[in-house]
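Record format v2
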Amino acid sequence: AQSVTQLGSHVSVSEGALVLLRCNYSSSVPPYLFWYVQYPNQGLQLLLKYTTGATLVKGINGFEAEFNKSQTSFHLRKPSVHISDTAEYFCAVSEVTSGTYKYIFGTGTRLKVLA
Amino acid sequence: DVKVTQSSRYLVKRTGEKVFLECVQDMDHENMFWYRQDPGLGLRLIYFSYDVKMKEKGDIPEGYSVSREKKERFSLILESASTNQTSMYLCASSFNPGQGDPANYGYTFGSGTRLTVV
């Protein structure tokens, strides 16, 4: 079964700084990979996804992530964060069960952007 | 705008009550899912369904059941609510990859139902 590891449950950075949120998955077979963001008291919103093709993926709100097959990683970064990026971020990887694609989530990284 | 709608944002129920959480999607997705979210544990899959009247257990099905009588609706049932079922419940729906544009891969989530069992 797939597993997803997000290093760092809490990350604090200053506004304008670069942020890197780490995600590693277990499968040797290239899966579909996702990053979701959750703002307080809301559901999860898709930030970006890797399905095929170019390994650098750009998403909404200036976020990007790079799929690295050899390191089984899909780290998320943003060159200059804003206070409004304060939220919880979840990495997810696909897994097939009974012919159905479902997604396995990491335990999340809570990002706090300081003024 | 495509949507997954959960019927309640907040619920308070008593121990032992039977609780129904409803989820409706308007995207004609085959797959629907129920997760619970708890601090430090991320999202854990309770049940999913890949077709009408079909269901599969996820990682933590104990104490829950589901119903999918129509393609657009997936209900989560707590047969006898207990305090350890106090949580945020998230519904999601999706296509299977290979069925259309990769831009549509992945889940669409509802806004969540925060259930408190007292």
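Chain B touches chain A through 29 residues (CB under 8 Å).
The CA atoms of residues 29 and 95 of chain B lie 5 Å apart.
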